[in-house]
Amino acid sequence: MNFSRQRESIINILKLNYEHPTAYRIYELVKEIEPTISKSTVYRNLEQLVELGKVRKISTGGNFEHYDIVRDSHSHAICKCCGNIFDVNLDVEKIANFIKNQTEMSGCNEIIVMGICKDCEKEN
Amino acid sequence: MNFSRQRESIINILKLNYEHPTAYRIYELVKEIEPTISKSTVYRNLEQLVELGKVRKISTGGNFEHYDIVRDSHSHAICKCCGNIFDVNLDVEKIANFIKNQTEMSGCNEIIVMGICKDCEKEN
DNA sequence: CATAAATTCGTAATCATTCCTATTTTTAAT
DNA sequence: ATTAAAAATAGGAATGATTACGAATTTATG
Protein backbone atom coordinates (compact mmCIF):
# COMPACT_ATOMS: atom_id res chain seq x y z
CA MET A 1 0.00 0.00 0.00
CA ASN A 2 1.46 3.32 -1.10
CA PHE A 3 1.22 6.60 0.71
CA SER A 4 -1.60 8.91 -0.26
CA ARG A 5 -2.45 12.34 1.07
CA GLN A 6 -6.15 11.62 0.75
CA ARG A 7 -5.94 8.43 2.78
CA GLU A 8 -4.04 10.25 5.53
CA SER A 9 -6.79 12.85 5.66
CA ILE A 10 -9.43 10.16 5.97
CA ILE A 11 -7.51 8.54 8.81
CA ASN A 12 -7.05 11.89 10.55
CA ILE A 13 -10.73 12.68 10.32
CA LEU A 14 -11.55 9.28 11.77
CA LYS A 15 -9.10 9.82 14.61
CA LEU A 16 -10.77 13.11 15.51
CA ASN A 17 -14.32 11.81 15.21
CA TYR A 18 -15.83 9.64 17.90
CA GLU A 19 -19.35 9.75 16.48
CA HIS A 20 -19.16 6.60 14.30
CA PRO A 21 -19.71 8.63 11.12
CA THR A 22 -21.20 7.33 7.90
CA ALA A 23 -19.13 7.17 4.72
CA TYR A 24 -20.89 10.23 3.43
CA ARG A 25 -20.26 12.18 6.63
CA ILE A 26 -16.60 11.26 6.39
CA TYR A 27 -16.62 12.46 2.79
CA GLU A 28 -18.08 15.79 3.86
CA LEU A 29 -15.53 16.25 6.62
CA VAL A 30 -12.54 15.26 4.51
CA LYS A 31 -13.75 17.62 1.82
CA GLU A 32 -13.08 20.58 4.09
CA ILE A 33 -9.40 19.66 4.16
CA GLU A 34 -9.14 18.07 0.75
CA PRO A 35 -11.72 19.86 -1.40
CA THR A 36 -11.22 17.85 -4.58
CA ILE A 37 -11.49 14.41 -2.98
CA SER A 38 -14.09 12.21 -4.59
CA LYS A 39 -16.63 9.97 -2.97
CA SER A 40 -15.13 6.90 -4.62
CA THR A 41 -11.79 7.65 -2.97
CA VAL A 42 -13.45 7.77 0.42
CA TYR A 43 -15.37 4.54 -0.13
CA ARG A 44 -12.35 2.73 -1.58
CA ASN A 45 -10.09 3.76 1.27
CA LEU A 46 -12.62 2.91 3.94
CA GLU A 47 -12.97 -0.54 2.43
CA GLN A 48 -9.20 -1.00 2.33
CA LEU A 49 -8.78 0.20 5.90
CA VAL A 50 -11.51 -2.18 7.05
CA GLU A 51 -9.72 -5.00 5.21
CA LEU A 52 -6.48 -4.09 6.99
CA GLY A 53 -8.24 -4.05 10.34
CA LYS A 54 -7.50 -0.38 10.95
CA VAL A 55 -11.13 0.68 10.68
CA ARG A 56 -14.32 -1.05 11.68
CA LYS A 57 -17.53 -1.00 9.73
CA ILE A 58 -20.69 -0.92 11.83
CA SER A 59 -23.99 -2.02 10.29
CA THR A 60 -26.89 -0.64 12.26
CA GLY A 61 -29.73 -2.04 10.21
CA GLY A 62 -30.42 1.45 8.88
CA ASN A 63 -29.61 2.64 5.39
CA PHE A 64 -25.96 3.53 5.92
CA GLU A 65 -22.81 1.88 7.06
CA HIS A 66 -20.94 3.59 9.90
CA TYR A 67 -17.20 3.61 10.48
CA ASP A 68 -14.99 3.75 13.53
CA ILE A 69 -11.21 3.85 13.66
CA VAL A 70 -9.72 1.08 15.76
CA ARG A 71 -8.25 2.54 18.96
CA ASP A 72 -8.79 0.38 22.01
CA SER A 73 -10.91 -2.73 21.88
CA HIS A 74 -14.51 -1.94 22.58
CA SER A 75 -17.92 -3.10 21.45
CA HIS A 76 -20.94 -1.20 20.21
CA ALA A 77 -24.53 -0.87 21.35
CA ILE A 78 -27.06 0.37 18.81
CA CYS A 79 -30.45 1.87 19.56
CA LYS A 80 -32.99 0.24 17.24
CA CYS A 81 -35.17 3.29 17.53
CA CYS A 82 -32.90 6.28 16.79
CA GLY A 83 -29.95 4.39 15.34
CA ASN A 84 -27.44 5.97 17.72
CA ILE A 85 -24.29 4.02 18.43
CA PHE A 86 -22.76 3.82 21.90
CA ASP A 87 -19.42 2.38 22.99
CA VAL A 88 -19.49 -0.50 25.45
CA ASN A 89 -16.85 -2.61 27.12
CA LEU A 90 -17.69 -6.29 27.08
CA ASP A 91 -15.52 -9.29 27.81
CA VAL A 92 -15.13 -10.32 24.18
CA GLU A 93 -12.60 -13.04 25.02
CA LYS A 94 -15.06 -14.76 27.31
CA ILE A 95 -17.83 -14.60 24.76
CA ALA A 96 -15.45 -15.82 22.05
CA ASN A 97 -14.76 -18.98 24.04
CA PHE A 98 -18.41 -19.51 24.68
CA ILE A 99 -19.16 -19.16 20.96
CA LYS A 100 -16.34 -21.46 19.93
CA ASN A 101 -17.72 -24.34 21.94
CA GLN A 102 -21.25 -23.82 20.79
CA THR A 103 -21.14 -23.10 17.07
CA GLU A 104 -19.23 -23.42 13.84
CA MET A 105 -17.52 -20.12 14.64
CA SER A 106 -13.81 -20.29 15.36
CA GLY A 107 -13.97 -17.14 17.47
CA CYS A 108 -15.10 -13.56 17.48
CA ASN A 109 -13.59 -10.13 17.77
CA GLU A 110 -16.61 -7.90 17.74
CA ILE A 111 -19.91 -7.76 19.54
CA ILE A 112 -22.88 -5.64 18.63
CA VAL A 113 -25.71 -5.17 21.05
CA MET A 114 -29.11 -4.02 19.80
CA GLY A 115 -31.60 -2.37 22.11
CA ILE A 116 -33.31 0.88 23.01
CA CYS A 117 -31.54 3.90 24.39
CA LYS A 118 -32.72 5.79 27.47
CA ASP A 119 -33.87 8.83 25.45
CA CYS A 120 -36.00 6.77 23.08
CA GLU A 121 -37.48 4.81 25.97
CA LYS A 122 -38.55 8.05 27.65
CA GLU A 123 -40.28 9.27 24.51
CA ASN A 124 -42.32 6.07 24.04
CA MET B 1 -53.82 -5.27 11.05
CA ASN B 2 -56.11 -7.16 8.72
CA PHE B 3 -55.71 -10.72 7.58
CA SER B 4 -53.96 -11.28 4.28
CA ARG B 5 -53.25 -14.54 2.50
CA GLN B 6 -49.91 -13.21 1.27
CA ARG B 7 -48.74 -12.29 4.76
CA GLU B 8 -49.69 -15.75 6.05
CA SER B 9 -47.60 -17.29 3.29
CA ILE B 10 -44.62 -15.15 4.20
CA ILE B 11 -44.95 -16.16 7.85
CA ASN B 12 -45.26 -19.83 6.89
CA ILE B 13 -42.16 -19.67 4.74
CA LEU B 14 -40.26 -18.04 7.58
CA LYS B 15 -41.43 -20.72 10.00
CA LEU B 16 -40.13 -23.44 7.70
CA ASN B 17 -36.83 -21.75 6.95
CA TYR B 18 -33.99 -21.74 9.48
CA GLU B 19 -31.42 -20.30 7.08
CA HIS B 20 -31.91 -16.59 7.88
CA PRO B 21 -33.03 -15.85 4.32
CA THR B 22 -32.75 -12.51 2.56
CA ALA B 23 -35.85 -10.58 1.51
CA TYR B 24 -35.30 -11.69 -2.06
CA ARG B 25 -34.95 -15.33 -1.09
CA ILE B 26 -38.18 -15.07 0.85
CA TYR B 27 -39.79 -13.53 -2.22
CA GLU B 28 -38.62 -16.47 -4.34
CA LEU B 29 -39.90 -19.03 -1.87
CA VAL B 30 -43.27 -17.38 -1.34
CA LYS B 31 -43.65 -17.10 -5.09
CA GLU B 32 -43.86 -20.89 -5.34
CA ILE B 33 -46.99 -20.83 -3.20
CA GLU B 34 -48.31 -17.44 -4.20
CA PRO B 35 -47.15 -16.90 -7.79
CA THR B 36 -48.52 -13.40 -8.24
CA ILE B 37 -47.04 -11.90 -5.08
CA SER B 38 -44.96 -8.81 -5.68
CA LYS B 39 -41.64 -7.89 -4.18
CA SER B 40 -43.12 -4.78 -2.58
CA THR B 41 -45.62 -6.93 -0.69
CA VAL B 42 -42.79 -9.03 0.69
CA TYR B 43 -40.73 -6.03 1.71
CA ARG B 44 -43.71 -4.23 3.24
CA ASN B 45 -44.79 -7.24 5.24
CA LEU B 46 -41.31 -8.00 6.46
CA GLU B 47 -41.01 -4.44 7.68
CA GLN B 48 -44.37 -4.64 9.43
CA LEU B 49 -43.52 -7.95 11.04
CA VAL B 50 -40.20 -6.57 12.26
CA GLU B 51 -42.06 -3.59 13.69
CA LEU B 52 -44.44 -5.94 15.51
CA GLY B 53 -41.52 -7.93 16.87
CA LYS B 54 -42.58 -11.11 15.12
CA VAL B 55 -39.60 -11.13 12.79
CA ARG B 56 -36.01 -10.05 13.30
CA LYS B 57 -33.92 -8.28 10.74
CA ILE B 58 -30.24 -9.25 10.73
CA SER B 59 -27.69 -6.89 9.17
CA THR B 60 -24.53 -8.75 8.30
CA GLY B 61 -22.57 -5.87 6.80
CA GLY B 62 -23.07 -7.39 3.36
CA ASN B 63 -25.42 -6.08 0.73
CA PHE B 64 -28.63 -7.69 1.91
CA GLU B 65 -30.71 -7.76 5.00
CA HIS B 66 -31.56 -11.18 6.40
CA TYR B 67 -34.70 -12.17 8.27
CA ASP B 68 -35.51 -14.67 10.98
CA ILE B 69 -38.89 -15.42 12.51
CA VAL B 70 -38.90 -15.05 16.28
CA ARG B 71 -39.20 -18.47 17.90
CA ASP B 72 -37.11 -18.88 21.04
CA SER B 73 -34.73 -16.20 22.21
CA HIS B 74 -31.34 -16.67 20.66
CA SER B 75 -28.52 -14.52 19.34
CA HIS B 76 -26.62 -14.59 16.08
CA ALA B 77 -23.00 -15.02 15.14
CA ILE B 78 -21.94 -13.82 11.70
CA CYS B 79 -18.83 -14.85 9.81
CA LYS B 80 -17.18 -11.72 8.43
CA CYS B 81 -15.62 -13.77 5.69
CA CYS B 82 -18.48 -15.79 4.16
CA GLY B 83 -21.40 -13.94 5.71
CA ASN B 84 -22.97 -17.09 7.13
CA ILE B 85 -25.19 -16.65 10.15
CA PHE B 86 -25.17 -19.08 13.06
CA ASP B 87 -27.50 -19.30 16.04
CA VAL B 88 -25.96 -18.85 19.48
CA ASN B 89 -27.31 -18.86 23.00
CA LEU B 90 -25.95 -16.03 25.09
CA ASP B 91 -27.10 -14.71 28.44
CA VAL B 92 -28.75 -11.60 27.02
CA GLU B 93 -30.23 -10.62 30.37
CA LYS B 94 -26.82 -10.47 31.97
CA ILE B 95 -25.37 -8.44 29.15
CA ALA B 96 -28.42 -6.15 29.22
CA ASN B 97 -27.72 -5.30 32.85
CA PHE B 98 -24.08 -4.72 32.15
CA ILE B 99 -24.97 -2.39 29.27
CA LYS B 100 -27.55 -0.51 31.30
CA ASN B 101 -25.04 0.48 33.94
CA GLN B 102 -22.39 1.46 31.47
CA THR B 103 -24.12 3.42 28.70
CA GLU B 104 -27.10 5.47 27.66
CA MET B 105 -28.84 2.25 26.63
CA SER B 106 -31.87 1.26 28.66
CA GLY B 107 -31.37 -2.40 27.81
CA CYS B 108 -30.93 -4.82 24.97
CA ASN B 109 -32.74 -7.74 23.46
CA GLU B 110 -30.40 -8.86 20.75
CA ILE B 111 -26.71 -9.58 20.47
CA ILE B 112 -24.75 -10.01 17.28
CA VAL B 113 -21.32 -11.51 17.34
CA MET B 114 -18.94 -10.97 14.43
CA GLY B 115 -16.04 -13.30 13.78
CA ILE B 116 -14.69 -15.99 11.48
CA CYS B 117 -16.26 -19.40 11.05
CA LYS B 118 -14.29 -22.64 11.23
CA ASP B 119 -14.55 -23.31 7.49
CA CYS B 120 -13.24 -19.89 6.53
CA GLU B 121 -10.42 -20.17 9.05
CA LYS B 122 -9.32 -23.46 7.51
CA GLU B 123 -9.23 -21.96 4.03
CA ASN B 124 -7.03 -19.01 5.07
C1' DC C 1 -74.97 -5.06 0.73
C1' DA C 2 -72.30 -0.77 1.50
C1' DT C 3 -68.67 1.72 3.17
C1' DA C 4 -64.14 2.57 4.97
C1' DA C 5 -59.79 0.88 5.92
C1' DA C 6 -56.19 -2.14 4.81
C1' DT C 7 -53.66 -4.54 1.47
C1' DT C 8 -51.99 -5.80 -2.97
C1' DC C 9 -49.60 -5.62 -7.55
C1' DG C 10 -46.66 -3.64 -10.72
C1' DT C 11 -43.74 -0.34 -11.81
C1' DA C 12 -41.08 3.81 -11.24
C1' DA C 13 -38.00 6.24 -8.35
C1' DT C 14 -34.41 6.50 -4.90
C1' DC C 15 -29.91 6.59 -3.42
C1' DA C 16 -25.95 4.41 -1.03
C1' DT C 17 -22.45 2.02 -2.94
C1' DT C 18 -19.62 0.09 -6.64
C1' DC C 19 -17.57 0.24 -11.07
C1' DC C 20 -14.94 2.30 -14.82
C1' DT C 21 -11.20 4.73 -17.03
C1' DA C 22 -8.20 8.33 -18.19
C1' DT C 23 -5.02 10.88 -15.50
C1' DT C 24 -1.94 11.67 -11.68
C1' DT C 25 1.01 10.29 -7.88
C1' DT C 26 4.08 7.26 -5.58
C1' DT C 27 7.78 4.02 -5.33
C1' DA C 28 12.01 1.84 -6.39
C1' DA C 29 15.56 0.97 -9.54
C1' DT C 30 18.86 2.68 -12.69
C1' DA D 1 17.49 13.07 -11.40
C1' DT D 2 15.03 9.96 -14.89
C1' DT D 3 12.24 6.51 -15.84
C1' DA D 4 9.03 2.78 -15.76
C1' DA D 5 5.76 0.06 -13.19
C1' DA D 6 2.44 -0.03 -9.69
C1' DA D 7 -0.88 2.26 -6.95
C1' DA D 8 -4.11 5.71 -6.32
C1' DT D 9 -7.27 9.45 -7.70
C1' DA D 10 -11.35 12.19 -9.63
C1' DG D 11 -15.51 12.25 -11.57
C1' DG D 12 -19.17 10.41 -13.50
C1' DA D 13 -21.88 6.37 -14.93
C1' DA D 14 -23.89 2.04 -13.55
C1' DT D 15 -25.78 -1.08 -10.18
C1' DG D 16 -29.18 -2.99 -7.46
C1' DA D 17 -31.49 -3.53 -3.05
C1' DT D 18 -35.06 -1.15 -1.15
C1' DT D 19 -38.82 2.28 -1.04
C1' DA D 20 -42.56 4.97 -2.89
C1' DC D 21 -46.68 5.41 -5.44
C1' DG D 22 -51.37 4.85 -7.26
C1' DA D 23 -55.00 2.26 -9.12
C1' DA D 24 -57.33 -1.95 -8.15
C1' DT D 25 -58.61 -5.56 -4.92
C1' DT D 26 -59.60 -7.58 -0.45
C1' DT D 27 -61.02 -7.45 4.35
C1' DA D 28 -63.68 -5.97 8.35
C1' DT D 29 -67.82 -4.12 10.28
C1' DG D 30 -72.47 -2.82 10.90
In short:
Chain A is an alpha+beta fold and 124 residues long.
Gross morphology of chain A: globular
Q: In the CATH classification, which architecture of the largest domain in chain A applies?
A: Orthogonal Bundle
Count of distinct structural domains of chain A: 2
Q: Mean pLDDT across all residues of chain A, rounded?
A: 96
Biggest interchain interface, per-side counts: A-B, 37 and 37 residues
Provide the β-strand percentage band of chain A: 25-35%
Terminal residue distance of chain A: 49 Å
Q: What multimeric state do the chains show?
A: homodimer
Biggest beta sheet attributes of chain A:
3 strands, mixed
The amount of helix of chain A comes to: 40-55%
Write the H/E string of chain A, N to C: HHHEEEEHEH
| Alpha-beta content class of chain A | alpha+beta
CATH topology of the largest domain in chain A: Arc Repressor Mutant, subunit A
CATH level 1 class label of the largest domain in chain A: Mainly Alpha
Descriptive report:
Chain A has 124 residues and is an alpha+beta fold. The first copy, chain A, folds into 2 domains: 5-69, Winged helix-like DNA-binding domain superfamily/Winged helix DNA-binding domain (Arc Repressor Mutant, subunit A); 75-123, Dna Ligase, domain 1. Chain A has 5 helices and 5 strands. Chain A has helices at residues 5-16, 23-33, 39-51, 92-102, 118-123, and strands spanning 55-59, 65-69, 75-79, 85-88, 105-117. In chain A, the strands form 2 sheets. Chain A has a 3-stranded mixed β-sheet. In chain A, helix 1 (5-16) crosses helix 2 (23-33) and helix 2 (23-33) crosses helix 3. Chains A and B meet through strand 4, helix 4, strand 5 and helix 5 of A and strand 4, helix 4, strand 5 and helix 5 of B. The structure holds a DNA duplex (30 and 30 nucleotides).
